[in-house]
Structures are given as structure tokens and as C-alpha cells.
Design brief:
This protein has 2 domains: 103 residues, Tetratricopeptide repeat domain (Serine Threonine Protein Phosphatase 5, Tetratricopeptide repeat, Alpha Horseshoe); 63 residues, no CATH class. 73% of the residues lie in helices and 0% in strands. The chain is elongated.
Length: 171
């Protein structure tokens, strides 16, 4: 690819990133559309396309570019998080768990990954594993203790003594 084309590609990717930061997913998709066919997109552009579709609640549609991004860039934890998010919203908790387990292989000390994995494991009825990952998330970032209180994904385990121990704030 010519240097000029690479500069144009990067400019469009930055523009799409800006739109996504502003919550303008449709504009991000339009910008990425100027790059041509989805088959020609870079791993980062594929991720951005998936994120734009996710931002529009088109979770099933977002899976295809996100899977391609994960295949091309398997060490990108953000891609795995986005895949997990979309799988959860397409009622495939098993695949959401797998995506987050893969994210942990990439970033074992990322609190957000442990927290989201705890959420998905709670929904999957895997209480001991959910509590273990929630504990790790809280250890890495104590703010997750407060977030867990309002997280509906923890409703299945909310009455569990282990959950209550983890989320109780001692004053």
C-alpha cells in the first residue's frame, strides 16, 4: 500500500474514532464506508466497524467484523471485550465467557476484563468462578465493589454470602 493510501486510511480511522468518542456511531460507519469493502479493512478498522455497530445496538451484525479483527489481531483486549459484549446481547453467554477468557490471556491484570467475566459467569450460573473474578476485579480496582451493587448481571448471585462479603463496604 502506498504511503499516501496509508495516511488516508489512518485519517479515516481517526475520524471514525472521534465519532465513536462523541457517540456518533452512524457517522463512524459512514467514515469507515469510505475505506471500501469490509474485506479490505485493517484489523483496527474492523474493530472500529464492530464498535460502531455495537453502538447502534446491532450486536449480531457487529460480531462479523469483530471476529475478523480478533483473528487478525488476537492480542487486542478491546476486541475480545467487544466480542463478549455482543455475544452477551445476542444471548450467547457461553461465547461471551470464552471471549473474556481469551481477553484474560492477553491482559491478566485488567480489572475490567475480570469484572465483565464475573458478570457473564454470574449469568451462566457459575457462582464460584463469578465470585473469584469479581474478587480479582475489586482487588485490581476497588471501584468495582461499588459498581457491583447496581449491576443487574449479578442478580443471580446477589443473595450469595460470598457476593455479599465482596461487596460489603466496611466503614
Amino acid at each position: 500500500m502506498a504511503a499516501r493510501d496509508q495516511i488516508r486510511l489512518r485519517q479515516i480511522e481517526r475520524q471514525a474514532e472521534g465519532y465513536l468518542e462523541l457517540g456518533m456511531a452512524e457517522h463512524a460507519l459512514d467514515a469507515l464506508g469510505r475505506l471500501g469493502k469490509a474485506a479490505d479493512l485493517s484489523p483496527h478498522a474492523l474493530y472500529l466497524r464492530g464498535e460502531a455497530l455495537r453502538g447502534l445496538d446491532r450486536h449480531a451484525e457487529a460480531l462479523r467484523p469483530l471476529r475478523r479483527a480478533a483473528k487478525a489481531d488476537p492480542d487486542n483486549v478491546h476486541v475480545w471485550l467487544a466480542l463478549g459484549w455482543c455475544h452477551k446481547r445476542t444471548a450467547r453467554i457461553d461465547l461471551a465467557v470464552r471471549a473474556l477468557e481469551r481477553a484474560l490471556e492477553v491482559e491478566p491484570s485488567e480489572a475490567l476484563v475480570h469484572y465483565n467475566l464475573a458478570c457473564y459467569l454470574s449469568l451462566a450460573g457459575q457462582t464460584p468462578r463469578a465470585l473469584a473474578h469479581l474478587s480479582r476485579a475489586i482487588t485490581l480496582d476497588p471501584d468495582y465493589r461499588l459498581r457491583a451493587h447496581d449491576e443487574p448481571d449479578f442478580d443471580p448471585i446477589r443473595s450469595d454470602p460470598g457476593f455479599q462479603d465482596l461487596t460489603t463496604i466496611i466503614v
